[in-house]
Every structure is written in structure tokens, then in C-alpha cells.
User: Which sequence fits this backbone?
């Protein structure tokens, strides 16, 4: 039986389809997909049923790629198009209930975490408080003694000052989300060590990925370093906008604990909070348009 040009085209298209399929399966396997035949016996069966991907015989002349049916693109032509479409589709935003549910699951994971030495001395983990209603997320350094005892961030004296700041901004306490770089109290309220901050970083990342705040307020130098990897003095950095992962505005400012020791710095923090409100298009208390 002689091979027609249509047979030749079909042969070429089938080989190309098989190659694409094989690459797709390998990609899925490298991405951790399950359900692929990993069992050696299954692989033998699979190998015996599927023709080996070899070069076509020397006599085979691949035709110029063209649609088999006029007007209908072949599969190899479609694959890059499908990938381009998939890459261009914006992710669907999660519903607020879904975000809350995922944060609750994350909180459970954090509660059992033993990734760094801080778990040895904690009473409990301190995940977060509040909501993203205002679009603002405050990120501090780590829990202190009161937070370790109550399981909530910023509930001690520094937290009460933060609450007064939030109220002065015209917001309710739970309109903002508040969390820390590390979720367990460092002993003696020391600064978290770099490996501790790094171990805890994925949790903060997941929180921020879910919340998608419009503005992050980084409270103190440790928060700026944990978020942005910048280790400059907070006095130099405060009040100057930065970007988290190239997209979320970050306002560095003094930590409320610093304000308790240095009340004169409150003016600077208030300026920074007014800048946050302006950035969000929210009214600045005491200012008329
Ligand atoms: Fe885990 Fe973070 Fe606590 Fe370390 S500080 S044990 S990484 S939750």
C-alpha cells in the first residue's frame, strides 16, 4: 500500500502530538502530579503498549506543518496558543469566606509548627488579629509576654498604643489586620534571629498572599528586614514608601514599643499614618479638603 500525502501528514501530526503529550506528562510529573504510573510493573505495561518515540525512518519526509482540515489548526499549533491563553487568564479572586477558611487552616498549621527553636519556649503561637477591611496590614516583629499568654498579637502596652493610633486614623480596631514576622515569642523578648525569621517567613507570605492588603505598615526595622530584606536603620527608612514583591506598598515606621520609650517620635508615626490614609484615598482626620 502506498503512502498518500495525507497519510504522511497524519503520521507527522501524530508524532508531534505524541511528543507534546510526553512533554506534558513529564512536566506534570516534575510538578509533583500524582496518579502517574510510577510502579515498575505499571511502567513495563505502559512501555509495552506505547510505541517508542524514535526518529521516523530516513525515507520519511515531514511535510510543512499545515492544518489537516482547512481552517482547523493542528494540535501542535494549538498547544502554544492554549498555554498562552492559560498564562494570560488572571486568577479568580477568592471570596472573603474562602480567604477566612484558608487563613484558619493556615493558623492550625502554624499552631503545630516546630520549624525553629522558638517553639521550645512558647506558650502558644500568635497568628494574627483583625481583618483586611481597610486594606491595611500592620506587621510587627514578634510576640511578647502578653501576646504569648493570650495568643493574639499586639495586646500588651505597645498593642494598646497601636490601637489608639488605629482609632486616631478613624478606623475600628478590627478594620486592620495585625501580625508579626515570627509567630512564637523569642525568649526575653529578644529580636528574632535571621534563621528564625526565615523559617517563619512562608507563613507570613501565605497570610499576605491570601489577604492581598493594599498597604503594609512595617512596624520597626525587624519588620522591614523580614518583609523586604533591607537592613537599614528605621530612622532613615521611615516615612518612605517601599514595595513588597514589586506590587504592594509598604510604609516603614517606628514600632509602638519604641514610641513608649520615645514619645516624641509619635509625631513622625502620625505623619506616616496620614500618608497611608492619603494613599488609600481615606479621609485624613483633622484635614479638610
Ligand atoms: Fe514555627 Fe514560626 Fe514558631 Fe518558628 S516562630 S516554630 S517557624 S511558627
Assistant:
Amino acid at each position: 500500500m502506498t503512502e498518500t500525502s495525507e497519510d504522511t501528514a497524519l503520521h507527522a501530526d501524530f508524532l508531534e502530538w505524541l511528543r507534546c503529550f510526553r512533554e506534558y506528562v513529564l512536566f506534570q510529573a516534575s510538578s509533583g502530579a500524582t496518579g502517574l504510573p510510577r510502579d515498575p510493573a505499571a511502567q513495563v505495561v505502559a512501555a509495552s503498549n506505547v510505541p517508542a518515540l524514535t526518529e521516523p525512518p530516513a525515507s520519511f519526509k515531514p511535510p510543512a506543518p499545515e492544518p489537516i482540515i482547512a481552517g482547523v489548526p493542528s494540535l501542535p499549533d494549538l498547544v502554544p496558543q492554549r498555554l498562552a491563553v492559560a498564562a494570560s487568564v488572571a486568577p479568580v479572586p477568592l471570596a472573603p469566606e474562602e480567604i477566612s477558611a484558608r487563613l484558619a487552616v493556615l493558623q492550625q498549621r502554624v499552631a503545630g509548627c516546630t520549624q525553629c527553636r522558638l517553639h521550645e519556649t512558647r506558650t502558644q503561637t500568635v497568628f494574627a488579629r483583625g481583618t483586611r477591611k481597610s486594606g491595611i496590614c500592620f506587621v510587627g516583629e514578634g510576640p511578647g509576654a502578653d501576646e504569648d499568654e493570650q495568643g493574639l498579637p499586639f495586646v500588651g502596652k505597645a498593642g494598646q498604643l497601636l490601637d489608639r493610633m488605629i482609632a486616631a486614623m478613624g478606623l475600628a480596631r478590627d478594620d486592620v489586620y495585625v501580625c508579626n514576622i515570627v509567630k512564637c515569642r523569642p525568649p526575653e523578648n529578644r529580636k528574632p534571629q535571621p534563621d528564625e525569621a526565615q523559617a517563619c517567613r512562608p507563613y507570613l507570605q501565605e497570610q499576605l498572599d491570601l489577604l492581598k492588603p493594599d498597604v503594609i505598615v512595617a512596624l520597626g526595622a525587624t519588620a522591614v528586614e523580614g518583609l523586604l530584606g533591607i537592613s537599614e536603620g528605621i530612622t532613615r527608612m521611615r516615612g518612605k514608601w517601599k514595595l513588597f514583591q514589586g506590587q504592594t506598598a509598604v510604609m516603614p515606621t517606628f514600632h509602638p514599643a519604641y514610641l513608649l520609650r520615645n514619645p516624641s517620635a509619635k509625631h513622625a508615626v502620625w505623619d506616616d499614618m496620614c500618608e497611608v490614609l492619603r494613599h488609600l484615598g481615606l479621609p485624613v482626620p483633622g484635614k479638610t479638603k
